[in-house]
Design a protein that fits this description.
With 415 residues, this protein is of the alpha/beta class. 41% of the residues lie in helices and 25% in strands. The protein is elongated, with a radius of gyration of 27 Å. It starts with a strand and ends with a helix. It comes from Oceanobacillus caeni.
């Protein structure tokens, strides 16, 4: 098959209500791209029989491969099979291996299986059944009027397991497409999207393969490189060469690739340099420490932190001098430096970092909303403090201050 048009449909009202994010579609698109299959459409439809059927009918008219996630469970609002049956009139039968597994689950847990659980074992007669090792409901691959339909559970770990083990090799054989599409995401902090694009304009204008796409995110700016080649090795060589050219221009702002996070790289650098860190947080209220300790192995390098939101805590617990607070204020360079020095000393850390500022909604000590001071000190006497003016609401200011603190620590450790 050439010029294959693929489509992904997610079934579930919870997606439309924003209660959960449709991460399945993102993951599936990435997998299909690696097979050289172009995804032309993403769709989300609620748990309504007529609307699901209508979405399926529209997809049938325009796509060659349609992947449906969700709606295969035991309850009355799991309507994926019913909607497809209305469209195709295909017969549903009970898949005995799946039914045996469902019954075994309830027996092992010493609970009574309700009759509606039998719904999960129903499959279309003649379909290729995808046995679900991580959950209850099986998946299916069905051919209908020259269109390939793939039905997968909505639970991400179940969906990914079935796709990786059975759907990926099936589609690889079906398409016979030898072209490989590989992507690489480069992550940057401390530079805006427009500035990054300006500095790389000569590369972006000359792009052919790989393509270069800058994109702003809450955690910085990313560049997605996408290469098409006959083999994975050749595509990876193109990506590495493009990465080298980009980092030659803006490497000072680079901190990771693909799923790497800034905090993961900070923990790695702290371990490499055999250094420990502690934080004193006023307006960020522990957000910085939380980001670091979310990383596995952080206990080896994170001494801890002191949330000193109240002025008395800054003075009586952390040890900021009364004179500094009276003469310079809590939102000042001097206070930020003392906070960093004191937390480093009290928690026996090589690096101390502090955050103080005005998150809003009102001014503090004559300082406008968004004013933030971040200080970094070390046990060997190095010290720096920077003032920032962040925009946004209260929590946006706190998030931006936290991200800036991570950036400061990363660049201190990296260079």
């Amino acid at each position: 098959m050439t010029n294959v048009k693929a489509e992904i449909i997610a079934v579930g009202t919870e997606l439309l209500l924003g209660q959960i994010a449709n991460t399945n579609a993102q993951w599936l698109s990435n997998q299909l791209a690696s097979l050289g299959i172009n995804v032309y459409q993403h769709g989300v439809v609620g748990d309504n029989l007529n609307r699901v059927q209508e979405a399926f009918e529209q997809a049938q008219k325009r796509s060659d491969i349609i992947i449906v996630t969700g709606g295969l469970g035991p309850t009355e609002d799991d309507l994926t099979r019913e909607a497809f049956q209305l469209m195709t009139e295909l017969e549903l039968v009970e898949h005995k291996p799946s039914m045996d597994k469902i019954q075994s689950f309830f027996e092992k847990n010493n609970t009574t299986m309700t009759p509606n659980n039998r719904r999960q074992a129903r499959v279309f007669k003649g379909s290729q059944v995808l046995f679900n090792r991580k959950g209850m409901a099986p998946g299916m691959i069905v051919s209908h009027e020259s269109t390939t339909w793939v039905f997968l559970p909505g639970v991400p770990r179940e969906m990914k397991g079935l796709f990786t083990e059975e759907v990926f090799p099936y589609l690889q054989k079906l398409t016979g497409n030898t072209e490989v599409i590989k992507s690489l995401v480069l992550k940057f902090l401390g530079i805006g999207e427009s500035e990054l694009e300006h500095r790389l304009s000569h590369l972006i204008q000359a792009q052919k393969n790989p393509t270069i796409a800058p994109l702003a995110q809450n955690t910085g700016v990313v560049i997605r490189l996408t290469a098409k080649e006959e083999t994975e090795e050749r595509a990876e060589r193109l990506l590495e060469e493009s990465k080298r050219q980009i980092l030659h221009e803006v490497g000072d702002y680079f901190y990771g690739i693909n799923d790497e996070t800034i905090e993961e790289n900070i923990i790695s650098l702290l371990k490499e340099k055999k250094m420990k860190i502690a934080s004193a947080e006023s307006l960020t209220g522990g957000m910085f420490s939380n980001r670091l300790i979310s990383v596995s192995g952080a206990s080896n390098v994170c001494r801890g932190g002191i949330v000193c939101y109240d002025t008395n805590v800054k003075q009586d617990v952390l040890g900021v001098s009364k004179e500094t607070i009276q003469n310079k204020g809590t939102v000042s360079e001097e206070c930020a430096l003392e906070m960093a020095e004191q937390v480093s000393s009290k928690l026996d850390a090589d690096i101390g970092i502090s955050f103080t500022g005005v998150a809003g909604p009102d001014e503090v000590e004559g300082k406008s909303v968004g004013t933030v001071y971040i200080a970094l000190t070390t046990s060997n006497g190095e010290k720096k403090v920077e003032k920032f003016i962040f925009s946004g609401d209260r929590n946006a200011i706190r998030r931006r201050a936290t991200l800036k603190g991570l950036e400061i620590v990363f660049h201190f450790l990296k260079f």
